[in-house]
Structure formats: structure tokens, C-alpha cells
Amino acid sequence: SAPAAGAAGALPLTIVNDTGSFGNADVHVYIVGNVDGRQVRVTPEGTVAPVSLSDNGADGYTDYAIGLAGSGETRLNLPHLSGRIYVSLGEKLKFKVVADGAGNAALQYPAGWVESDPNYAVLHDCAEFTHNAAGMFCNTTMVDMFSVPLAIRLTGAGDRTTGTVRPGGRAAVFEAVRKVEEFAPLVVDDTRVIAPGHGLDAGLFPKDYLAPYIDEVWSTYTGRDLRITTNAGTFTGRVRGDRLTFDGPAQVSFAKPSTRDVLFCDGNLAAPNDGTTGPVAAVLGAGFNRSTLVSSAEQPTTAPATFYGTALTNHYAKAVHAATEDGRAYGFAFDDVADFASYIQDTAPTGIRLTLGAF
After folding, report:
1. What is the pLDDT of residue 359?
2. Which of 214, 279, 334, 355 is the most buried (most CB within 10 A)?
3. Which residues pair with 246 in a beta bridge?
4. CA 150/CA 358 separation, integer angstroms
5. Are strands 74-78 and 11-17 parallel, antiparallel or unpaired?
6. Using one digit for the tens of pLDDT, what is the confidence trace for 201-252?
């Protein structure tokens, strides 16, 4: 059947409210993102509208909320864009349109990990997607925080689901993070758990938490080789001087990362899109977060039972992976290494379902 009129490539999007705690009238959906470099939002009718400063109301914020049907499932249309689907429960989200450095209208997204953010008290979460002529590419994300259990099901050439949080899984994440002394301050009441990198920036998480493990990796590979296999080939590395330097398809080299570099997969572990340094950095970042680098000199490792096995590890990522039915989650930026991220794609999509899971 022909796609619904209105926008390029409209893909049926079904929103399912299985929270059990909030009625449909208390669930608000926002679809925001980019088209050809312009910041846009999707209207309730499924069309793309550029964001505009004039969208800000008397309170200084936009109201881009899309309401759910009175009961049951809600059917929307998702046009071509790259962006996020936000959901908020109870209160609406406050998105503000501002002028960027070039004078163009830009949307300030919620930052639930920032205490001064206007959305800090609002229960909300999001999924990420790119929808274009090549297909639909989407994931649930916990890279910044975990709050609302979200599952996505993508049908078309295939039929795949990811992100489903097992019964009791949300509470289990909060409990697991609370149990580890250094991580406990990342739990914000019953609203959300913020990722440790953001916690570090907010002064809630120790800046040197992973330093002993990072030092152990450096000392381990001063005396032996670390082998990293990527699509570009295998790289063999060793610490020479104070840098971990790899030979292989190209020479790539890394200064010792900080705890922040590991948690954000940035800084000394930044991954440029160069086909060599980038892929090696991603595998290193995954190995540090999963704390598998000392135990295995062949990376990446692919047995999840061996992940997060040390006392010093990313206990936040460990908790969100333990909570999902398929074991996949986006607990840190390089969680897609060895395919452990809650990411699915379809090159001939016919529908997507976003389900808000039970609390």
C-alpha cells in the first residue's frame, strides 16, 4: 500500500504504553532531529517542520508534544530524518529554540543529567534513529542516562526487537548501581540513573575511579603484545615510552587515558572516522569499560560472561546490560563493539513499534 501522504518515506510508527503506571493522557511524545543540516521536529500529522524561535511560548519553551490516542496503541508516521524520539511521563518536556552561532534556529535538548536543566524533574527518555532512503537504523540509548524502559521492534525485510527490559529490570538497575559506593550518587531518586561520565563532570563520581585498572593495562602491555582485530585488519600494540603504540595496517598510538576518557570514549580514546585509529580506539574503549583488557590480550572479546568481571568496572553499563532480555544495551559510546548495543536496522522497513515498558 502507498505510504501515508505528507512526508518523504513515511514509516508507520506505533507507540505502545505498557508502563502500567501512567495513562495515555500522561504520555507525551516528541520527534526531533535534523534534515539536510536543518533542525526540525515532526508534527502530530507526521510532517517535518523546521524549528523556529517563534515556536517558544510565553513560558520561553516550545510545545512540540504529540499526544497518544485516548486508549490502546497510537499510530503515527515517521518521515525521513535523523533524530530522537523522546517520551515524557506526567509532565511535558521543555524544549527551547535558541539561535546558534551562525544565527540559525537550534533546539536545546533535555539534559537529564544536569541538575539545573529545566527537565531535570521530568520523567523522560529517548530512542535514536536515522530514517532515510537506505532504510531505518535505530537504537535505544543509555549512553547518557537510564530512566524509562524502551523497546523497539522493526519490521520489514526482517523482524527484530531490542531494548526490552525484563520484568523488574528497571528497579534492578537502580538497585545494582546504588549498591556500589562510588556509583550510588548517580541514582536520582526514582527518576533516573545518570551515566558515570556525566556524574564525573557533575562532581558526583570520582575522577580517578578507573586509574588503577588503566595503570594495570599499561603495565601489562609494557611486557607483552596486545592484538586488536578490526575490519581494517589486525593491529599489534605495546606500551613504548608512555604510549600504547600499534603496528599493522597503519601505525596508531594512544596516550594513557583518564577515567573520563574511558567513560566518554573520548579524549585520548577519541575515535576519528579514519578507518584505522577509530576502530582501534573503539575496541580499546570497549575493553576498558568491560574491563577485559588485562584478562585477554586478544581483542575484542565476545563472551559477555567475561565482561565487567573486575571490582573496578563500569557498574552502570553492567547493570543496564543485565536488565535487558537480549543482553544488549547502549551503556557507553562504543558498546556496539562485538555487537552488544541495543541497535537494529532494516533496509526495507514497513513499521516500527516503540514500547514503554512496565515500571
Report:
1. 85
2. 334
3. 237, 252
4. 9
5. antiparallel
6. 999 999 999 999 999 999 999 999 999 999 999 999 999 999 999 999 999 9
Find all residues with CB under 8 Å of 187, minimum gap 6, and list them.
174, 177, 178, 193
Cell numbers placing 284: 580499546
Nearest alpha-carbon partner for 141 in 331, 356, 347, 340 = 331
CB 49 within 8 A of CB 39: no
Q: Which of these CATH numbers, 3.40.50.700, 3.30.920.50, 3.90.226.10, 3.30.70.1400, describes 211-311?
A: 3.30.920.50
Report whether 194 contacts 144 (CB < 8 A). yes
Other residues' Cβ atoms within 10 Å of the Cβ of residue 179: 11
24: pLDDT confidence band, cut at 50, 70 and 90?
very high
